[in-house]
């Protein structure tokens, strides 16, 4: 493949949220046809009428559709970007139209729970086999094996505003990385490759926890020192959890690890940061979730990791504390006083 | 009362038409083709080294091997051969590049041809027939003599080998697949007996002879060499790890597969040292199935659609592994810091094997061979027609795995990943088709109880517990055993493991059967019952038999 994808085969994007739209716009710059799938016919009609989606203008090369079969059958490469809570059901609908020649590169930074919460108890605690990353969901639900993920500091707003950025395409297959690079790369958008698929996925998922916490610090106006302290401790915690879940430390130092963590922990454009920020200002979690248009994955991730950490005996004070805040067992102020007293051991050799 | 026995007819009655017979008829031409293809591949793949460096490395390693680790089967002219290669390589170093290159390629071709000749099997129809008859007839006679008492029973037809060896799983399925495409059988590997056993299973099921890679060391023994050759074995030399050899070996397997020869290899590489079911499979030979399938698709025409390759996992279950003491000691020596004495492997002389076989047939220890469901090259199950079915029960075309942008493409890294996926699937299937015997469970229970009683000790210390500490109260033992059996049966119900029929008997009876069978021919039986106590006599072999049941998460329930 050359620098421009000149073939007429369209590229698919599933999920017309802000990141899905941003990905479609990048793809549309190099590809003549991009199919963007939105869940409802009404939404398709609105987008088509305004040529605007999730607050972003959409490129002329983008065709919006409500037909998964059409997407599956016309595209060889598809980017699913839907919230983790809907990911598995979306895959179930899409799977009949997928074949092993398809390449799927997802951009969802959350976990899938494949077990009914009620079945989780002390006898059968939540464990890694109940918690799946999106690449694992894709492989479980379809015959697609060439799977990858997108992760990195990619605030959708900035991408749509054509500001420079970079991302990581992670996959066990060099072919997938190559295809991702060819489809996405442009003058303002750099693509790095990684073979550590699970590691990179975990980076994107776990950083959301820290982003929520960083938001609370900003909300309490505790200053930059406190935030830097929090983020760096947060990174250590991410590595510990990540290792317990089958990732390796290197990934966390990459663009998708530290890079993404920085962007989301410092920006009002990040949903997870916003959740923390508003918690600190005194709103309850239910109010915040009800008023947000899109899902902040961090909240669900905090709950899952809190439980997993218990199962695997990993100490993760930040996640535990945030969990108590969300469960209203603690105020944000108490949480910070608690963390300041927590006897963190010396800097740990994490790599 | 005698049960009606299943008899399988030969699926291709005319041996003339067997692909392996065709192959051996044109042996010379085939070896030449293998040499040519390996040669082309090797020229293409450089691995960051020049051809000269590759050759120098090969010569160096081969000379080292000849000196450090000579075997009886090695040909006499090895030394002069490598010396001559080395000399000509050295002489050509000063030639102009073009001429030097010609010589290098010539030398490479010579080496590859030598390797192909060495690897190639020597299948002979007549000796296959003889070996087949010998195994079936001879073993059956031995069995009858031992079991039915009295010399006249040598002529009794009451017992056959299939009374001793239970074939379970999907035997009909593999017979159907063998007619639809090329079968690659991948059994677990615990004992040197496996090769002969599988050979018997293949002919018993009425399948045409398979080709298979057998360790060259087995050819050290005349009796083995004879059976191996006649059963279609080609030779794999574990000592030769140089890329030139490995490429030739892979090409041989891949080409034979493409010719439609059913093949067999032990993907674990060597016998499981620890007694655990293989987890890390050797990917080299396995990769030839994927590469072979891709080439078949590339060469297909509308008139002649590609043959499909089917992977069939097979699990062999013994109560007892003859080599267990030697294997486990080797395993512990490798993993532990402790020094263990090297014992002679029981398969070193024909006499020992003969004694073992006699013991095996004269005492009541059964073997079961579980034939798994066929899979395509990515580990999707196939139906009786050979169609791949995905996890959702929907048909899929494996050709799509090689397609990128609408065309079949060659991507070695992609295929490497596919091999990993396939290997993982095979291991999953092994666990599923593993049949748990009472003997495995008694070993598992006893060993885990020891570990539980000594939570502070690491494995090596548990293995060295003094005699007075290795006694278990029978009542306690029975309780733990029953609890584990319940878990095992639960797993069985979910289709995650197989269970031998005798496991369903009353606890006392099943435990007794287990105790009587676990490691029954070892000089020291690992586990015995004395009064109301269970005594562990040999921790290492107990550990070995216990390992068979690792990987099911049963340790939580003791």
UniProtKB/TrEMBL annotation, chain A:
<feature type="binding site">
    <location>
        <position position="271"/>
    </location>
    <ligand>
        <name>sn-glycerol 3-phosphate</name>
    </ligand>
</feature>
<dbReference type="InterPro" id="IPR008927">
    <property type="entry name" value="6-PGluconate_DH-like_C_sf"/>
</dbReference>
<feature type="binding site">
    <location>
        <position position="156"/>
    </location>
    <ligand>
        <name>NADPH</name>
    </ligand>
</feature>
<keyword id="KW-0594">Phospholipid biosynthesis</keyword>
<keyword id="KW-0444">Lipid biosynthesis</keyword>
<feature type="binding site">
    <location>
        <begin position="15"/>
        <end position="20"/>
    </location>
    <ligand>
        <name>NAD(+)</name>
    </ligand>
</feature>
<dbReference type="GO" id="GO:0046168">
    <property type="term" value="P:glycerol-3-phosphate catabolic process"/>
</dbReference>
<feature type="binding site">
    <location>
        <position position="152"/>
    </location>
    <ligand>
        <name>sn-glycerol 3-phosphate</name>
    </ligand>
</feature>
<feature type="binding site">
    <location>
        <position position="156"/>
    </location>
    <ligand>
        <name>NAD(+)</name>
    </ligand>
</feature>
<feature type="binding site">
    <location>
        <position position="270"/>
    </location>
    <ligand>
        <name>sn-glycerol 3-phosphate</name>
    </ligand>
</feature>
<feature type="binding site">
    <location>
        <position position="295"/>
    </location>
    <ligand>
        <name>NADPH</name>
    </ligand>
</feature>
<feature type="binding site">
    <location>
        <position position="109"/>
    </location>
    <ligand>
        <name>substrate</name>
    </ligand>
</feature>
<dbReference type="GO" id="GO:0141152">
    <property type="term" value="F:glycerol-3-phosphate dehydrogenase (NAD+) activity"/>
</dbReference>
<dbReference type="InterPro" id="IPR006168">
    <property type="entry name" value="G3P_DH_NAD-dep"/>
</dbReference>
<feature type="domain" description="Glycerol-3-phosphate dehydrogenase NAD-dependent N-terminal">
    <location>
        <begin position="11"/>
        <end position="172"/>
    </location>
</feature>
<keyword id="KW-1208">Phospholipid metabolism</keyword>
<keyword id="KW-0963">Cytoplasm</keyword>
<keyword id="KW-0547">Nucleotide-binding</keyword>
<protein>
    <recommendedName>
        <fullName>Glycerol-3-phosphate dehydrogenase [NAD(P)+]</fullName>
        <ecNumber>1.1.1.94</ecNumber>
    </recommendedName>
</protein>
<feature type="binding site">
    <location>
        <position position="272"/>
    </location>
    <ligand>
        <name>sn-glycerol 3-phosphate</name>
    </ligand>
</feature>
<feature type="binding site">
    <location>
        <position position="271"/>
    </location>
    <ligand>
        <name>NAD(+)</name>
    </ligand>
</feature>
<feature type="binding site">
    <location>
        <position position="109"/>
    </location>
    <ligand>
        <name>NADPH</name>
    </ligand>
</feature>
UniProtKB/TrEMBL annotation, chain B:
<dbReference type="GO" id="GO:0019432">
    <property type="term" value="P:triglyceride biosynthetic process"/>
</dbReference>
<protein>
    <recommendedName>
        <fullName>Glycerol-3-phosphate acyltransferase</fullName>
        <ecNumber>2.3.1.15</ecNumber>
    </recommendedName>
</protein>
<comment type="pathway">
    <text>Phospholipid metabolism; CDP-diacylglycerol biosynthesis; CDP-diacylglycerol from sn-glycerol 3-phosphate: step 1/3.</text>
</comment>
<dbReference type="GO" id="GO:0012505">
    <property type="term" value="C:endomembrane system"/>
</dbReference>
<dbReference type="Pfam" id="PF01553">
    <property type="entry name" value="Acyltransferase"/>
</dbReference>
<dbReference type="GO" id="GO:0006072">
    <property type="term" value="P:glycerol-3-phosphate metabolic process"/>
</dbReference>
<keyword id="KW-0808">Transferase</keyword>
<dbReference type="InterPro" id="IPR002123">
    <property type="entry name" value="Plipid/glycerol_acylTrfase"/>
</dbReference>
<feature type="domain" description="Phospholipid/glycerol acyltransferase">
    <location>
        <begin position="183"/>
        <end position="319"/>
    </location>
</feature>
<dbReference type="GO" id="GO:0008654">
    <property type="term" value="P:phospholipid biosynthetic process"/>
</dbReference>
<dbReference type="GO" id="GO:0004366">
    <property type="term" value="F:glycerol-3-phosphate O-acyltransferase activity"/>
</dbReference>
<dbReference type="GO" id="GO:0006631">
    <property type="term" value="P:fatty acid metabolic process"/>
</dbReference>
<dbReference type="InterPro" id="IPR022284">
    <property type="entry name" value="GPAT/DHAPAT"/>
</dbReference>
<keyword id="KW-0012">Acyltransferase</keyword>
């Amino acid at each position: 493949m050359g620098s421009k994808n000149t073939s007429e085969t369209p590229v698919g994007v599933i999920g017309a949220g802000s990141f899905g739209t941003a990905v479609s716009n990048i793809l549309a710059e190099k590809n003549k046809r991009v199919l963007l799938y939105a869940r409802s016919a009404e939404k398709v009609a609105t987008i088509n009428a305004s040529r605007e989606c999730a607050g972003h203008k959409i490129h002329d090369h983008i065709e919006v559709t409500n037909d998964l079969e059409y997407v599956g059958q016309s595209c060889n490469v598809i980017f699913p970007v839907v919230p983790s809570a809907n990911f598995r059901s979306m895959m179930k609908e899409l799977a009949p139209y997928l074949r092993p020649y398809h390449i799927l590169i997802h951009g969802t930074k959350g976990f899938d729970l494949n077990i009914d919460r009620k079945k989780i108890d002390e006898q059968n605690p939540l464990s890694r086999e109940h918690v799946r990353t999106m690449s694992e969901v894709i492989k479980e639900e379809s015959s697609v094996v060439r799977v990858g993920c997108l992760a990195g500091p990619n605030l959708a707003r900035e991408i749509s505003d054509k500001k420079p950025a970079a991302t990581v395409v992670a996959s066990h297959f060099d072919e997938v990385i190559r295809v991702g690079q060819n489809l996405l790369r442009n003058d303002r958008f750099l693509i790095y490759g990684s073979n550590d698929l699970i590691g990179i996925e975990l980076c994107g998922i776990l950083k959301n926890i820290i982003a929520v916490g960083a938001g609370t610090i900003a909300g309490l106006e505790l200053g930059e020192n406190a935030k830097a302290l929090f983020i760096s401790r947060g990174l250590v915690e991410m590595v510990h959890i990540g290792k317990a879940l089958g990732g390796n430390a290197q990934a966390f130092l990459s663009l998708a690890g530290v890079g993404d963590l920085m962007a989301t922990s410092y920006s009002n454009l990040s949903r997870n940061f916003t959740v923390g920020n508003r918690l600190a200002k005194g709103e309850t979690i239910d109010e915040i979730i009800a008023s947000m248009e899109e899902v902040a994955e961090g909240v669900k991730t905090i709950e899952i990791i809190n439980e997993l950490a218990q199962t695997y005996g990993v100490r993760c004070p930040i996640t535990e504390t945030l969990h108590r805040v969300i469960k209203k067992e603690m105020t944000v102020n108490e949480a910070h006083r608690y963390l300041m007293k927590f006897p963190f051991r010396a800097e740990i050799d994490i790599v | 009362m005698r049960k009606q026995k299943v008899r399988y007819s030969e699926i291709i009655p005319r041996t003339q038409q067997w692909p392996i017979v065709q192959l051996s008829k044109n042996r010379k031409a085939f070896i030449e083709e293998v040499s040519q293809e390996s040669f082309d591949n090797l020229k293409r793949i450089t691995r960051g080294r020049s051809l000269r460096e590759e050759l120098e490395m090969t010569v160096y390693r081969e000379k080292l091997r000849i000196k450090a680790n000579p075997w009886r089967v090695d040909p006499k002219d090895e030394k002069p051969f490598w010396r001559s290669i080395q000399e000509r390589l050295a002489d050509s170093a000063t030639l102009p590049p073009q001429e030097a290159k010609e010589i290098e390629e010539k030398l490479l071709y010579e080496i590859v041809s030598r390797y192909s000749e060495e690897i190639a099997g020597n299948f002979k129809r007549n000796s296959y027939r003889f070996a087949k008859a010998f195994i079936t007839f001879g073993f059956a006679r031995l069995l009858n003599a031992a079991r039915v008492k009295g010399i006249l029973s040598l002529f009794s037809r009451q017992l056959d080998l299939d009374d001793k060896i239970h074939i379970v799983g999907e035997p009909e399925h593999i017979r159907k697949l063998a007619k639809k495409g090329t079968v690659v059988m991948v059994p677990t590997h615990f004992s040197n007996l496996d090769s002969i056993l599988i050979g018997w299973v293949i002919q018993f099921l009425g399948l045409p002879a398979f080709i298979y890679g057998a360790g060259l060391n087995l050819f050290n023994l005349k009796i083995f060499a004879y059976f191996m050759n006649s059963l279609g074995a080609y030779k794999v030399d574990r000592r030769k790890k140089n890329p030139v050899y490995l490429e030739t070996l892979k090409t041989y397997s891949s080409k034979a597969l493409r010719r439609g020869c059913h093949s067999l290899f032990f993907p674990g590489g060597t016998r499981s040292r620890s007694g655990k079911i293989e987890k890390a499979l050797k990917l080299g030979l396995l990769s030839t199935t994927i590469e072979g399938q891709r080439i078949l698709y590339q060469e297909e025409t509308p008139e002649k659609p590609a043959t499909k390759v089917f992977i069939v996992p097979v699990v062999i279950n013994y109560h007892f592994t003859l080599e267990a003491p030697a294997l486990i000691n080797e395993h512990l020596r490798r993993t532990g810091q402790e020094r263990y004495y090297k014992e002679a492997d029981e398969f070193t002389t024909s006499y020992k094997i003969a004694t073992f076989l006699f013991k095996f047939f004269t005492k009541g220890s059964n073997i079961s061979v579980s034939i798994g469901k066929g899979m395509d090259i990515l580990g999707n199950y196939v139906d009786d027609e050979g169609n791949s079915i995905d996890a959702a029960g929907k048909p899929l075309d494996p050709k799509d795995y090689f397609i990128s942008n609408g065309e079949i493409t060659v991507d070695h890294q992609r295929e490497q990943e596919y091999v990993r996926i396939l290997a993982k699937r095979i291991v999953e299937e092994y666990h599923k088709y593993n049949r748990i015997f009472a003997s495995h469970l008694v070993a598992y229970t006893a060993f885990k109880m020891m570990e539980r009683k000594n939570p502070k000790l690491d494995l090596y210390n548990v293995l060295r517990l003094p005699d007075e500490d290795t006694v278990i109260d029978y009542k306690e033992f029975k309780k733990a055993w029953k609890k584990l059996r319940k878990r095992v049966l639960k797993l069985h119900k979910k289709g995650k493991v197989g269970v031998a029929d005798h496991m369903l008997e009353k606890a006392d009876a099943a435990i007794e059967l287990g105790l009587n069978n676990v490691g029954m021919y070892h000089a020291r039986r690992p586990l015995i019952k004395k009064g109301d106590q269970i005594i562990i006599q040999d921790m290492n072999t107990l550990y070995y038999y216990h390992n068979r049941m690792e990987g099911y998460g049963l340790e939580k329930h003791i």
